[in-house]
Design a protein that fits this description.
4-stranded antiparallel β-sheet; Deoxyuridine 5'-Triphosphate Nucleotidohydrolase, Chain A; about 0% helix; 2 domains; 5-stranded antiparallel β-sheet; globular; about 180 residues
Length: about 180
């Protein structure tokens, strides 16, 4: 293929390949699955999030503050605000190291909408049953530790259609264990 058969559209970063014989247009996105994420440090000790290993899904977030609320929850501030592009969502998940802590993320998954510009805060509940902790020496995250991971995902804009009927499916309305144990 010579250079006149290859054209790049700089506004979309799409490479167009022209096949002279079939008049087909093929395109390849040169930056597939890459987006820019603007991050603002709100605290001087804030740590920029990063992937621990190549191919990781989540960016590790580090605690720069820790506050206990009146309900016993621990809120870890990251000192960071993000600008998630429109059409995407940020999801806050516990890191796998959370299995070594006596904490559970209070809302299971934190949802960061693209319009939110405040500090990323990770709120954990202390693990206890009947107001009794499972451990005599409970373990929590300290300031300076990685406390969560931020996953950025594309999300569709859903159009709601009210209807009286839904299509049939193999599962139907079976839920809560209806597919077996």
């Amino acid at each position: 293929m010579n250079m006149k058969d290859k054209v790049t559209n700089p506004s979309t970063n799409i490479l167009f390949l022209f096949n002279k014989h079939s008049f087909r247009l093929k395109f390849i996105n040169l930056f597939m699955n890459k987006i820019d994420l603007k991050i603002k440090k709100l605290a001087t000790n804030a740590v920029m999030p990063k992937y621990a290993k190549p191919g990781d899904a989540g960016l590790d977030l580090t605690a720069v503050s820790k506050i206990a609320d009146q309900f016993g929850n621990l809120s870890y501030g990251t000192g960071l605000a993000v600008e998630i592009p429109e059409g995407y969502v940020g999801l806050l998940f516990p890191r796998s190291s959370n299995s070594k802590k006596d904490l559970i993320l209070s809302n299971c998954v934190g949802v960061i909408d693209s319009g939110y510009r405040g500090e990323l805060i990770v709120k954990y509940k202390k693990v206890k049953v009947d107001n009794i902790f499972f451990s005599d020496n409970p373990s929590y995250y300290d300031i300076g530790e990685r406390v969560a991971q931020l996953v950025i995902m594309e999300i569709p804009n859903v159009t709601i259609i009210e209807t009286d009927e839904l299509s049939d499916s193999e599962r139907g309305d079976g839920g809560f264990g209806s597919t077996g144990q």
